[in-house]
Amino acid sequence: MKVYIKTEQEFSGSLWYASLLHGMEEEARKKRYDMQFICETDDLAAVFGDDKKLLVVIGTSIRKLSQQLPRLKEENVDVLLVNMTSMYTTHGVHTLTMNYEQATLRSLEYLRNCGKTRTALFCINPDSGSDMRKRQTFLSSGYPNENIFYNTEGMTSCCEMLLNTISDFDSVLCANDIAILGLMRCLRERGIRVPEDLFVMGFGDIVNTELFSADNQSEPYKITTVTVDHEELGHQAVCLYAYLTKTESPIHMTGRLDSVLRIGATTAYLPDEPSHPITIPEWKDKEQDFYDDAMVSEIIRFQNLVAESDELDRKILRMLSADATAADMADALFFTQGAVSYRLKRIYAKLGVTTRKEALEQIRRYVFW
Predict the structure, then answer these.
(1) What is this structure's pTM?
(2) How far apart (Å, rounded) are the C-alpha atoms in residues 333 and 344?
């Protein structure tokens, strides 16, 4: 059997997408299915042939989904939306997402248990279906629209808007792990301490890699998150796809995966103890793509470096952040200086820089301890 997939290319370099796709590939390999990616210009009748017309659509954009679904409906193609939702709750349109409502409520409940009631919801993308669900749950929980900071003009601008009113808040809930790293960088540049001055947490667990982990295993996480296991989402997507290919019943299926709260240093390791109509900011003449942003691109490169690094690379990164020389690293790690220099050059390339100074500046922007 083939699993037909269509994705939004602009986030193909992001780790959540890579994780989701890895989960799909593992499940497809286990079931001996083939995965076939299609593009906008493909002749769908020729692509599917005699197979059932069922397509996995992976993405986040409300705008792009509203453009795609009418065409797919005309072609009699059923759709399994993964990591996105739709206003079309009809036969032939199925959804599989993280339970962002549960994750948002879990986060707000935890912050309230910590005594933090003046919470900002940061870096919400009005074109993201998942972000809009977080926003809706936030408002339904009694928080005002003034506490929401929309990313309509880029990450830097969104950070500046929040920082201009940061004294109004005692905590920030970030929309994703890229937003966490971007905000933490800007807070540190302003001299605002986390968690002493402000609690910070967010969605996603990529930031809690080994590089960010605490030395004390009883307190393993640096950043408090509600995890969103995109790899498991990928496994479930293939399983649901297989089920839908075998049923002809006129159903609309919706699946949601719950998240898990992981408490870290950004909330001081403290233990866990109705919808309102709003006006969403209008898009500018040029719509802001979340991934078309210099800070976001830099964070993605840094995240990919961390995710792809082995134990030696991570030791080198830590020592580099402490301004150790290649010779110092070689002595401490019992490697030749040539081997360390080779590793450093590879690190520079992954960060998109050419000099030690540039690499050091970038690493220090996103390593907070």
Answers:
(1) 0.80
(2) 14
